[in-house]
Amino acid sequence: MTDPELPKRLSLALGDPVAPYGAKERVQRALAARLATASERHARRRIWLVAFAAAALGVFFGLRFAPSARGGPTKGSLLSLRAARAVLRPDTELVVVRDDARGTSLRLVVGTVLLHVQKGTGRSFEVVAGSTHVAVVGTVFGVAHGADGNTAVEVVEGVVKVTDPNGEHRLVAGERWPARAPLFGDAAELAALREPIAVQPADDEPPPPSAEPAGPTNPVPASPSAEKSAAASAVSAPPRPTADPDQADYARARARERSGDQAGALAAYETLAARPGGIAEDALFGVLRIRARSGEPNAALQAVAQYRSRFPAGRYARDVDVQALNADAKKGDDPASLRECEAFLAQFSDDPRAWRFRLVRAAARAQSGDCRAALADLAYVPATEDRQAVLTRCPKP
Amino acid sequence: MSLASATSKTPSMVSPLTDTPSLTGSAKLSFDAIYAAEFDYVYRVVSRLVGSSEAEDLVQEVFVVVHRRLPEFRGEARITTWLFQIAYRVAGAHVRRERFRRRLSLLFGLELKSREAAQHPSGPSADGELVNAALGRLSFEKRSALVLHEVEGWTCEEIAESIGIPVGTVHTRLHHARRDFARHCASLNRGHAQ
Predict the structure, then answer these.
(1) Element (H, E) at A128
(2) Contact A18/B55, CB-based, under 8 Å?
(3) How many whole angstroms separate alpha carbon A97 and alpha carbon A80?
(4) Over the stretch A42-72, which tens digit does the pLDDT of each residue have?
(5) Do B56 and A11 touch (CB under 8 A)?
(6) What does DSSP assign to residue B54?
(7) Rounded Cα gap, residues A223 and A62, in angstroms
(8) Given A6, A17, A34, which is nearest B47 (Cβ)?
(9) Exposed (0-12), middle (13-18) or buried (19+): which is A356, by Cβ within 10 Å?
């Protein structure tokens, strides 16, 4: 409802806004003074703006191209690891996730890295580049990871297992994946890379005498190709010269195992495991390894229990955990598998083998419908078929 | 060339769209000519939109903008339309800035001296004081629509075209302005009675 008195009230209250006497001249004088200095003020403002823009650009490009921010070494940078040597091409960004007595884990963010990994050290060696996971025992190979997310691997010597979202590929010497321009073009670079590596002894514990990688098998039933790959790599490891009779017996047992005489190797390991001394630990782990490989989960679990009771803080303790997980998974004993996972991850969540436990736990969580927790675990798992299988159950949001 | 509003002794703030003689042709326009011809018009617009106490300062601001923007004026619209739009923006920015300043002062417990009170120490009439207080509580947009329509007699179409908003929006603003104005008046009346 409109108030009929409203215009009148408003007019009376506001009055007639006539400019007071002299207002026009006053404003004109003030205006003249302001306009006289306007150009100067505008010029000063423009200078400040230009200075500010230059400073902002300087800060932006300074941060972007600062050497520390890139972290990339210069051309031909040589990186020495415990049992490997790496040549990093220009603009390469490589993160050493882990490099200790148990193994080495590298993450290639971008660029090309050529690697020479010492054979027969018993350490695991892996390179993760984007969604591609490269596992190796001892070889000369190169990995390139472009800014576009594409990864390429070339093997000069030895065997490499490449796992990407599309599956696993086993590359032998001279093979490239995917087939494209070679990574090793510089002969001098390759020669420098191939120079013998002096393996640094572990500070905290002696390196295990076994040439078996820390965890070559998957926690879920391993694919035959993976086992074959691991076996092929293990064959290439040379026997270690020794003067100790126990060590000599152990070396003979290892040779039998490598030659395929699993029964003979098992008997030799069991004899050695009964002896006192440090060799018993190696032998017992040999027993466990053969039991696990021959598809006897119950026998493998017995060996696990024996090892754990005799060597609770043994050199193979973490590998035994992996074997226990494998055996439980093979038996289909999900509660036992999950117990192994929880126990391992509670203590060794940053161990290079931890992703295997996370994968099993993720599968269990996905099965129970807890996709959020499953995806959190999968974030640490390299791209494998098993990971993909869990992802199909729990697609990323 | 001069405006009716400029030559008249008691200038009325005609709508900038009303067909009255005006400065036309940007080539012929000079800042001094515009100032001489349109000062009263701009003063009236500004004092209607924000009150006469701050009109002189704001008129100066308006002409600073006019001086800066004059080369961009192509003469396609009436000079009064252009001046009104500048004055409306300058006044709106001033009102919003003052409100923000007042809120900050309230927040930090500072006392602000009102220029209106300083200019009228004895105070205006009781109803005038009430109306001004109620108008002061309206938003700039509502107050403008109400004053232009009720006091200056502009049609909704003229207001819409001058400000550059749809006619429906003007109707809505007017409706809300009348309702809020009545409510503020009632509440201020109750306050005085107590």
Answers:
(1) strand A124-129
(2) no
(3) 14
(4) 788 889 999 999 999 888 877 665 544 344 4
(5) no
(6) G
(7) 49
(8) A17
(9) buried
